[in-house]
Amino acid sequence: MAVSQTPRAAGGAPGGQMPLVEHLRELRGRLVKAVLAILAGAIIAAIFYGPILEFMTQPYYRMRPVLEARGIETELVITGVGGAFQFALKICLVVGLLFSSPIWLWQLWAFVLPAMHRHEKKWALVLAATGAPLFVGGAALAYTVMPKAMEILIGFVPDGFGSLVTGAEYFDFIIKMLLVFGVAAEIPLVVVMLNRLGIVSAKQLAGARPWIIVAIFVFSAIATPTTDPLTMLFLAGPMTVLYLISELIAKVTDWRRGKAEARGLSDDEASSIGDVESLD
């Protein structure tokens, strides 16, 4: 039987190694736990389906009076015999996935972590600790601007027409907005990690700044589910600010790296960004 060279803290072969079969068994066990956690999260979401639905539809009902004042009638509806069930099931599964994310992410983390070297563990922890708040912040911004975005989009309804928004369309719109804004908020983390790995320098980032800002606006125009410039600016503006912050962090990192090389230290020994040593 082939033996994996991945180190394991316990339960492996002598020398910290684990047979391939044991790896597969551990992976199966962690996948089962992750799936059960997601199902449990979906059940909890079903129990609190009413408040969750109210939270999701709040942006729509906040902008609805504005359109009605302009003479545009709009209604949120569910179509089809099984449409209500499919709509509820989709919401519960997605919300359950979010509710259980600490558990299934931990299962993934616990499987991968023993295979990492010391410095890889430190930066993986930094990545996880900063990535989640950035994503949540981006999603919160999306939730804030959604009423205005829907007001602009539905506002194109011509005189004499009404607007029926199906539940499935509305849910897809919300998910796309949250994902786009959440992923876009990860820009500084990606830039800092690329700089930390030595792939790009602060000088290169500064030289490419005009092109990157243009790319940010192009991405915002393409990625946002809406076609209005206001929503694009709501996304591009914070992304630009975050990129400038990440460029500043890269400058500090390069300065520290230069001082470390002058003293003959390795990059990992010199770096204390975020006090990563305290994570071990």
UniProtKB/TrEMBL annotation:
TM regions (residue ranges): 34-53, 87-111, 123-146, 173-194, 206-224, 230-250
Alphabetical keyword list: Cell membrane, Membrane, Protein transport, Translocation, Transmembrane, Transmembrane helix, Transport
Main location: membrane
Subcellular localization, as worded in the UniProt entry: Cell membrane; Membrane
Membrane topology: Multi-pass membrane protein
Subunit description: The Tat system comprises two distinct complexes: a TatABC complex, containing multiple copies of TatA, TatB and TatC subunits, and a separate TatA complex, containing only TatA subunits. Substrates initially bind to the TatABC complex, which probably triggers association of the separate TatA complex to form the active translocon.
Record's function text: Part of the twin-arginine translocation (Tat) system that transports large folded proteins containing a characteristic twin-arginine motif in their signal peptide across membranes. Together with TatB, TatC is part of a receptor directly interacting with Tat signal peptides.
Recorded family membership: Belongs to the TatC family.
Name of the protein in question: Sec-independent protein translocase protein TatC
Species in which this protein is naturally found: Aeromicrobium halocynthiae
